[in-house]
Each structure stands twice: as structure tokens, then as C-alpha cells.
Design goal:
Elements lengths: L4 E6 L2 E7 L12 H5 L14 E4 L2 E4 L5 H10 L4 E5 L5 H14 L4 E4 L9 E2 L5 E2 L7 H12 L5 H9 L5 E5 L9 H5 L6 E6 L11 E4 L8 E4 L4 E5 L15 H5 L8 H7 L19 E2 L7 H6 L2
């Protein structure tokens, strides 16, 4: 349900997650998956440096030169597509979609796989542990629908890849668990350009032209919309790994926004968004803001409709 939490940390290491009382979301509860599901943030297998693959050779890249290099490669690899993970924040999803559509007005924008494990578990008092294991499906789908008019499923993109309709793809993952298998990853073979931005190595990152590290939930600011259409915001609790450096602003810098490293900075500095992507109210309630039909349509707060 997108539970409200406190993160207890010391010197950029998480030691505990606690429920933050929120009568409109999780009350005072937190599920075991949420309570103990943070250890991946400090996993030694995480991707931490931007890399480029040239044949069998792999080169570490300079963050300062990376945006210009990516732009040149993307412009030469149209038609383009993007895979937008439901683990991204609204800001991250919007910047990636805007970037791809600025380079290719017909770029395919697809939602990444939606992880579902078992069935919803209902407890007395209304607390629900959802089988859907991602924090921002509703928000990401709203962003995709804003740009493309509809939500393209991951399976539909795989079909377009099989038909040769796309030459360049940017995959923004951020999944804390394995999310793509060898068979699915093989569908990306033959592309002129494949950019994979994720937390961990995968069968897809092994095929990527560029591999970029992704920020975990505790390392970034952002906004999210849970399954009940409640818009909530979060701030970073720990700093990015030193090697991850400027990853958080890479997409924004490709758009010409060098200052887009935080949620507030995005609203202020990213050019040409004020008319289409409005921030939440200045006095944003700690319980979040309902975006559903009982309050405002989800698109109104996000896109100023």
C-alpha cells in the first residue's frame, strides 16, 4: 500500500525500518517484507559505476562526459523505446519519458514488469499486504499515459523488438529482485544501442552497450502514487555510494537540467515542465494526498490538467 516508514541509519548505513503512523495508509503497521527488505541497499553486488561495452572490452566512464555521449548515441539509434520501471519515482519516470520523446517523437514508452507474489493478505483493521510488489505502478502508468496516450505493457515491447521496430532502448530498472530472465533478455539482442540502468547485474545488463547504476529507495528523493491513488513524497536517508556520484542527475543533464538532483530542484530547474508537470502543494500533508476520484484525478496534481 506504499507504507509510511522511518529509516534508522548511521553513517549512511540502514539499521532498521520502522512504521511511521499514517491513518490513511498503513495506520501503525508495517509488513515483514517492508521491515526487513532493505538489506539489498548495501549488497556488494550492486552496480556502482557507469560502463560502456565495446565488443568484449568494458570501459569505465566519466560521469561528466556521459550525458553528451549518450545523447549522440541515442540520436543515431532511432526508432527509440524506453522501459520505465514501477520502482522509479514520478520525477525519474517523467524525465526519462521526456528525454526519449525529445529525441524521437514516436518513441515507445513501456511499463516494466509488475512483480506479483502470491495473493493479497488482509488483516483485521483493514491493513493489507499486497501481492503486487512495487511502489509506484499507478504513478508510472499515469506518466506513460500522459506522453503516449496509453500504457504499453512490457510484453508488447518485446513483440515490437522481435519485429525489428526499435533500434535503441533505454531500460530503467531499479528492481531489488531478479526481474528478467535469459529468454526475455535475448529479445534485446540485435539492437544498435541498449542502455541498462539498474541496481544489480542481470542477463540484460550483460548485453548492454551502456550500464548505469541506479539509486535505491533510501538514496533518492521522489514522489510515488500507491495502489489507492495516494500521492506521497520521500526524502533521501543515506547518500549514494561514492562511485555512483552523479547518477541521479544523468537523465536530467541529458535534458539540459544540470541541477536536477533532488525533487525540489527538479520542479525549479528542469526547463519547460511547469505547464505539464506540477509539484504537490507546498504544504504537503504527511499522510499524502489522495489523487483518486474522491479528491482530484491523479493527472491533475501530476500534470496540471
Amino acid at each position: 500500500m506504499g507504507c509510511s516508514i522511518w529509516i534508522d541509519e548511521n553513517q549512511d548505513r540502514i539499521y532498521r525500518l520502522r512504521p511511521r503512523p499514517n491513518p490513511l495508509v498503513n495506520k501503525w503497521w508495517i509488513c515483514n517484507e517492508g521491515r526487513y527488505g532493505y538489506h539489498y541497499v548495501h549488497d556488494v553486488r550492486r552496480l556502482v559505476r557507469p560502463m560502456r561495452r565495446d565488443g568484449q572490452a568494458v570501459h569505465e566512464l566519466d560521469w561528466n562526459r556521459l550525458p553528451g555521449e549518450l545523447l549522440d548515441r541515442l540520436r543515431s539509434a532511432t526508432p527509440l523505446a524506453a522501459v520505465v520501471s514501477p520502482f522509479l519515482s514520478l520525477e525519474e519516470a517523467y524525465m526519462l519519458c521526456k528525454l526519449m520523446r525529445s529525441l524521437d517523437s514516436h518513441a515507445v514508452l513501456a511499463c516494466g514488469p509488475i512483480p506479483v507474489v502470491g495473493e493479497d493478505q488482509h488483516f483485521p483493521g483493514g491493513f493489507v499486504v499486497l501481492a503486487e510488489k512495487c511502489p509506484n505502478r499507478r504513478g508510472v502508468e499515469a506518466v506513460l499515459a500522459h506522453f503516449a496516450g496509453r500504457v504499453v505493457a512490457f510484453e508488447e515491447l518485446l513483440q515490437q523488438l522481435a519485429e525489428g521496430a526499435v533500434r535503441g532502448v533505454w531500460v530503467a530498472g531499479g528492481y531489488p529482485m531478479p526481474w528478467i530472465d535469459q529468454h526475455q533478455a535475448q529479445q534485446f539482442d540485435g539492437l544498435q544501442l541498449l542502455v541498462v540502468q539498474d541496481l544489480f547485474p542481470s542477463p540484460l545488463s550483460e548485453r548492454a552497450t551502456y550500464v548505469l547504476p541506479s539509486a535505491a529507495f533510501a538514496e533518492r528523493e521522489g514522489s510515488y502514487v500507491n495502489r489507492n491513488d495516494r500521492l506521497q513524497t520521500s526524502t533521501w536517508a543515506i547518500r549514494l555510494l561514492a562511485a555512483c556520484g552523479q547518477k541521479h542527475s544523468c537523465t536530467g543533464r541529458c535534458l539540459g537540467c544540470r541541477a536536477c538532483t533532488t525533487r525540489a530542484a527538479y520542479w525549479t530547474n528542469c526547463p519547460d515542465t511547469s505547464a505539464s508537470f506540477r509539484p504537490p502543494p507546498a504544504r504537503f500533508p504527511k499522510q499524502g494526498w489522495t489523487c483518486g476520484s474522491t479528491c482530484w484525478p491523479i493527472g491533475r496534481w501530476i500534470f496540471g490538467r
